[in-house]
Amino acid sequence: MIFVTVGTHEQQFDRLIKKVDEISAKNKHEFIVQLGYSNYKPKNIKKTYKFIPYDETLNIIKNSDIIITHCGIGTVLSCIRYKKPIIVVPRQRRFNEHTNDHQMQLAKVLENDKKAICIYDINYLERAIKSVKKLKIKSYKQGNIVQKILKFIDNLGD
User: Residue ranges of the domains in the chain?
Assistant: First the structure.
């Protein structure tokens, strides 16, 4: 099962939902998609939800083979906690998906630490789905992630 989540940010993430819908039409995996405020209505995906309660989200993450997510720190940390293969598609300001590009910056940190496959061009998503299982996720050491997040936040003003 592939779980796709776009979080609760109030801007659309149609770019990701459209691509996942297209991929799901020719993919054998079951997809569960949390749509958030996206406007695009999937045609091929059977299980879609606007929002999913937190405890249910954690349960879906635990039972998923792959997670495709925006670069929201809560979702990413949950995926790392359960050592799930993660594909991060950061929301981008230029597509009116967020007010700034902080998700792009955080994605670079995750990519450098080999915690996720990060997709900056949506056309590479299908290839990432095929290769993400090779990624061996290791949890951050206690405190290490907090230091990285604080450093990341400190650098946002630069």
Answer: 2-155
Best CA proximity match to 63, nearest among 48, 42, 82, 44: 82
Does this model's pTM top 0.85? My answer is yes
Residue that is written with structure tokens 């569960």 in the block: 32
CATH number of 2-155: 3.40.50.2000
Which H or E element spans position 31? strand 31-34
Q: What is the DSSP string of 104-139?
A: HHHHHHHHHTTS-EE-SSGGGHHHHHHHGGG----P
H helices of the chain, in order, are 14-24, 54-63, 73-81, 102-112, 125-131, 144-155
The conformation of residue 65, written as its DSSP 8-state character, comes to S
Residues 22/65, Cβ–Cβ less than 8 Å: no
Average pLDDT for the chain = 89
Under DSSP, is residue 52 helix (H, G, I), strand (E, B) or coil?
A: coil
Judged by DSSP in three states, 100 sits in coil
Measured distance CA(16)–CA(91) in Å, rounded: 9
pLDDT of residue 57: 95
